[in-house]
Amino acid sequence: MFDLLGVPPQVLFGQLLLGLINGSFYALLSLGLAVIFGMLNVINFAHGALYMIGAFVAWLLLTKLGLGYWWALGLSPLIVGLLGVALEKTMLSRLYKLDHLYGLLLTFGLALIMEGAFRHFYGVSGQPYPIPDALKGGQNLGFMFLPNYRGWVVVASLIVCFGTWFAIERTRLGAYLRAATENPVLVQAFGINVPVMITATYGFGVALAGLAGVLAAPIYQVSPLMGSNLIIVVFAVVVIGGMGSILGAIVTGLGLGLLEGLTKVFYPEASNIVVFVVMAIVLLIKPAGLFGRER
User: Fold this and answer.
1) CB atoms inside a 10 Å sphere around CB 170
2) CA distances from 205 to 130, 161, 208, 222 (A)
3) pLDDT tens-digit readout, 204-250
4) What torsion, rounded to 10 degrees, do the Cα atoms 32, 33, 34, 36 define?
C-alpha cells in the first residue's frame, strides 16, 4: 500500500484512531464541565477526581461484588452523580452568590482530598480492568485493525455527547434550564423548582465524568492519578471551545484529539503541548473561545 505523506497508512490511521479515542474522552469530560459552568457558573476542578472515582467504582463493583462491565456502566455514573448531588447541596450551593474563584478553590480542595484518600487506600499503581467478553477482538478494515472496545468507546461517547446537546438546546426541559440560569426568579414564578433543577444539573454533569471513567477503565489502568493527568488538558479544551458552550466542548474535544494524533505522526516532540499552543492562539484571536459568547 502507498505511503501517505511518507507515513505508512497503518501508522497514520492507527494514530488517528488513538487520537479519536482520546478526543472522545476529552469531549465527554469537557461536556460535563461545560454543562456545570454554563448552567451553574461553577469551575468544577473536582471533575478529574470524579472521573477517577467513576473508574474506581467500576473496579470495586467487579472485584468486591462480582458485577461486570455492563452493570458498572449503569451504576457507576449513578453513584458518582449522587455524590455530586451531596457535594452541591452541602457545599457548592453556599457559594453561588460569591466570585467564581471560591467555587474553583473549593472544588480544587475536594479534588486533592478525594485523590489523597484513594492514594492512601490503593497506592499509585494502576489496577487492571478487563474488557467485557462481548467487546473483545476487533475488525480488520484493510488499512488498519480496529479493536471492538475502542470502537465502542467512540460510538458511545458520540451518542452521549450529542444526546446531551440535543436535550439542552432543543427540548423544553433544556429551555427551562437555560432560562433558569438567566433569570431564576422569573422561572420560579412559573412553578418550576429552580434549586432542584440546579442540583440535578450538577449531578448530571459529574455523572458524565463517572461514565467517562467506566469507559476508560479497560483502556487505561484504574489509578488515583488518572484524573489529575487529564484534567488540565480537559480545561484547555473547554477554554478553546468557549466556557459553557456545549457544542464547543464536543467539537473541540474531538478535534484536538485528532490533532494530537496527527502531531504524534509528523512531529511527536510537540504532541504533549499542541493543545496548549492552540489554546494560546485561540485566546489571542478570540478570547471567548471558538464557540463562546462575550459575557
Assistant:
1) 9
2) 26, 11, 5, 21
3) 999 999 999 999 999 988 999 998 888 889 989 989 998 878 888 89
4) 90
CA distance 120 to 114: 10
Cβ atoms 33, 249 nearer than 8 A: yes
Render pLDDT for 69-125 as a digit per residue (tens, 0 to 9): 999 999 999 999 999 999 999 999 888 888 888 888 999 999 999 999 999 999 888
Asked if 145 and 258 count as a contact pair (C-beta separation under 8 A), the reply is: no
User: Does the global pTM surpass 0.85?
Assistant: yes
Backbone angles phi, psi at 145, to 5 degrees: -105, 125
Q: Can you tell me whether residue 146 is helix, strand or coil?
A: strand
Helix (H) or strand (E) holding 261: helix 246-266
Catalogue the E-assigned strands of the chain.
138-140, 145-147
